[in-house]
Amino acid sequence: MQNTSVSIASAKYPMLIAHRGYRAAYPENTLSAFRAAVNGGVQMIELDVSLSKDRKLVVMHDETLDRTTDGRGRVCDSTLAEIRKLDAGSRFSPDFAGEAVPTLAEVLELAAGRVRVNIEIKAEAFEADASPEVPDTAERQVAEIIGYYHLRDSVLISSFEPGILQRFSDFPNHPALGVLTEKLKADEILSFCRNINAFSWNPDYPVLDRRQVQLMQKEGFRVFPYTVNEKDEIRRLLEMGVDGFFTDEIRFSQYLNPV
Ligand code: G3P
Ligand code: CA
Predict the structure, then answer these.
(1) Which ligand is nearest to the CA of 225?
(2) Pair type for strands 57-59 and 116-121
(3) In whole angstroms, what is the distance from residue 77 CA to residue 65 CA?
(4) Exposure pattern of 106-141 as b/e (b: 16+ CB <10 Å)?
(5) Cα distance between the two ends of the chain
(6) Domain 4-62+102-255, what architecture?
(7) How does the average pLDDT of the chain come out, rounded?
(8) Which of 83, 115, 197, 258 could form a disulfide with 12 if both were Cys (CB 3.0 to 4.6 A apart)?
(9) Residue pLDDT, tens place only, 217-229
(10) What is the dihedral of CA 236, 216, 142, 96, to 10 degrees?
(11) Which residues of 88-101 are buried (b: 16+ CB within 10 A; e: fewer)?
């Protein structure tokens, strides 16, 4: 059964989205960071997934292990078992020594029924040449695990890679889709959002102005800019009428005025 209390449809806007968990105070993309965000009452957490050498889903932002763990090299050159032995906490603080890199299943277990989840599939996990029959592409595995946990209504899938979103949009009964962009303005991404029947446009916040927010909302798309960690910027974006924002600091929920 779906838990509709944390469905995307039941969210209150504008909404704070905890970027890589409660990243300001915990090691990013770890269970500690996600648990802290959930306990802090956020409506949605965001995480990044990529593929390991043995084609398993790994919750990690970077293409390499170096910045956030005590490992070295590319994520796609290590197996899940190797990655699971790494310490993903100490680089943030010795207080988190021994914190592991989570699997997507672990995060979804934690989140199920408690919080909405934005799963960003990293562009480097996209296999442009994979035929639609390949059963373990990143997007297929993500779709399968969402189905397994009955979380379709609580999940927003996003990516900077249009091919990933295009493929997801072809899956029957797929979750809501968010189009991530960096430099593009609303009118440059509008037709793609229409084509895949996107739920949201998730732009890098400096490109936004009120006209772009209104253009997208008039077309039925939510607008969730990333990643805003300055209170004046948050106020500016809320004045423009954005539907939410990604931030590392969940205490910025004080600036929200849910309707
Ligand atoms: O989804 C918003 C944000 O996470 C996108 O940028 O680089 O933090 O994954 P990045
Ligand atoms: Ca991300």
Answers:
(1) 1
(2) unpaired
(3) 10
(4) ebbebbbebbbbbbbbbeebbbeebeeeeeebbbbb
(5) 28
(6) Alpha-Beta Barrel (3.20)
(7) 96
(8) 258
(9) 999 999 999 999 9
(10) 0
(11) bbbbbeeebeebbb
pLDDT range class, residue 257, cuts 50, 70, 90: low
Phi, psi of 147 (to 5 degrees): -65, -45
Ligand 1 site: residues with CB under 6 angstroms? 19, 46, 48, 61, 120, 158, 180, 202, 226-227, 246
pLDDT at 259: 46
Instruction: Using alpha carbons, select from 36, 61, 65 the residue that is nearest to residue 50.
Output: 61
3-state DSSP assignment of residue 103 = coil
- Any idea where the domains of the chain sit in the sequence? 4-62+102-255
Q: What amino acid is encoded at 167 in this protein?
A: R
Handedness of CA 210, 237, 32, 92 (dihedral sign): positive
What H or E segment, with its residue span, contains residue 196?
none
CA distance 131 to 5: 37
* Separation of CA 1 and ligand 1 centre (Å): 30
Tokens of 230: 């300055």
- What residues are labeled active site? 19, 61
The pocket of ion ligand 2, defined by CB under 5 A, consists of 48, 120
